[in-house]
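User: Modeling request: complex.
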Amino acid sequence: MYSIIVVPPPTAEDRTTPTQLRLAPGERLTFGRGAACAVRIPHEGVSRRAGEITAQGAFWTLSNLSGRQTYVVENPEGAGEHIKVGPGRLEAPVPFEFSRIVLPAAGDLIGIDVWAPRHDYLRADGDIEGTTTAPAFSVDRSKRYFAVLAALCEPRLRGAPHAPPPTVDQVVERLRPHWPAASRTSVQWNIDYLAVKLRLKPGPEEADPGPRLNGKKESLVSLALRFDLVREEDLVVLTGPGGPAR
Amino acid sequence: MTEPYAVPVPRGYRIGGWEVREPIATGAFGSVYEGRRRDGQPATAALKFLPTGTGTPRQLTHLRELVEREVELYRRLERPRLIRMYDTLVVDDPERPELDGATVLVLEQAQTSLSALLAARPRPPSGPVLLAQICEGLAQLHRAHWVHGDLKPANVLLMEDGSARLADFNMAAELEGTHAYTPAFSTPDYTPPELLWAEIGERGRRIRPSADVWAFGVLAHLVLTDTFPLPGGTPSARRDAAAAYARGTDDLRLSPELPDDWREIIRDCLTRTHAERVTVEPLLRRVETAAGTARSPRRVLARPLLAHRPRRRTLTAAVLAAAASAALGYGISTLSADDDTGDRGQGPSATATVSSATYGAAELRTGKGVPAAYRVLIVESAHDCAQQDVTPALIAAMLKAESDFDPDLSDPANDEYGIARWTPRVLRFWMNADGTPADTVPEPPFPPAESIPAMGRYLCWIAPRLDTGLPGDRRVLIAAAYRTSYSKVNDAGGVPEKYGAYAARVARYLKEYTPPGRT
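Assistant: Request completed. Predicted assembly structure:
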């Protein structure tokens, strides 16, 4: 029942599979240099108790417990969109689905990623009263993950019902005209994020940290098409002006 | 009309023998109109238009599935407390592409809905009686092994005589074992906490009948007090409150307006976990007592559950409890079969008496060394799976080959434990009956009551993933895939060489445990 995922800065041991900490609404997590913190950041420039992240339903708040430093929470997909959380500010609400808390630490910048995959978005035919039967998924069609999902679904939506999903490299090629920074890593990251967001049931293969979940792209495509998350008219995100952001 | 109709149909439009009259209601998927006809009975009906046509602007693939569910339920189930379907029609009207191809369900017409009643008159005096009738409808569904999946006031219809019937079965699903698969749709205020943000598999979301019980608790609180049981001014605030309650950080604070008996009933519907929730039969008795209504007639039949699928039975809570005690060596003496045949039968009530030593003898031979204590678990774990190759004899043969039925097996060198030789990090994905992975990797010991059903679930998952063309006995292939993985078996085009000896042993025991005349 988690609603917030915190990805601490990678340490030497988990460079391949970064840790993800999941918070349910109401749960808190402290970060800092001190041993008592849930996320330890062993850097001299970081306060012993640097801050606290609290999951509030679908969004989260940041408390800045440091004495002097201002933290910046930026939206990595938001073209410079950011908020500042000054020292001593408690429970500042953060509105982004993806965020990076940037801690200034003696000349270095340390980033903690925080995802809020449960953000809700209005559906074309939805109401907000909560009395209507609603699909369990809510996607933001302006986000890059949606462009990635659209690219994965494209062959089938264009009339090849049994086409295998495109490879990661093909997706990169497809998206690059409007997302010049697209790379294997960023596309794979978005695929992994979609699996979290659409709550794909992990297969038993995932019990092993070794091989990646087989058929993750395949499962995403069949889920997205089954529930009409991507329709033919959505494919404009692949070609439309301004790229993925409509 | 405050909201646009999902499917606009002009007054006077003709379909089949029906003429469309006033609009009645619209939902997220379809719209309902009054229909009249000059000849034939009934003279009026509710026509539910669902935009399934290929040219409709909102052409939605998932709609077809939702419509099929609803039609399937109406075809299979006719119960006094469920709205009746008279007919289904398809619009053939190329002139109107927005309607062409739409499915029309011709349904028994109701007077109004519970949501309309509550809007006009909160806390209606007839509330308790209506709740008893709604609960009776749920019981009729659950006894027939269906889950409603979307119980809420808008889906409870009120007839001319003021009585309640359940409707809108787009999310309804037939139970397969302890679960059903429903599309990943729900109405937030009526969704139990375990389904909030639940994982979605290839077949949709797994739900249990207890999801309907939670929804009934919410609905009862709303009918009796005009408030939701969980605090908050918006659905998302109430959803967060439900999540906090389920995690144990918050208590349930029901309205002080509730009479004591109803408070207890609602509390037992709104438990933190599905396992603690009251099941529909005792719930119905308590609701009827609280409402002061007569007990609804109950028909108990002397025939196997799910007669249309003779081999498969449902692992009910009673059997599960019995299975657990059998595994502890207490044996089991009675299993009662309770089913509802609807409008036909009135058989005498029956209780089948089975002893654990011969349990499931038709599918698993006796006298061949399968310990009596595990027979119920083995047989019911196999029955819990709809794959025909996952049989009691297969599970028994594998347990013999894996551990020689040793519940205390401990093999740290290979990281395998218990009667089914589970590797902890793999068991994690199969230990929960609802198919969700456990939060953490479990630690041994793994008792048989946990190991065997988990084995059944894993085998059930493997079976459809093995390529169809593989040579050899599919059951043995499934066993080999359990040892290694289904993809290794597919890649090897059969039992991989390394597992040949294991497969041979499973094949030998399989033969030994399968009763003569069965394959």
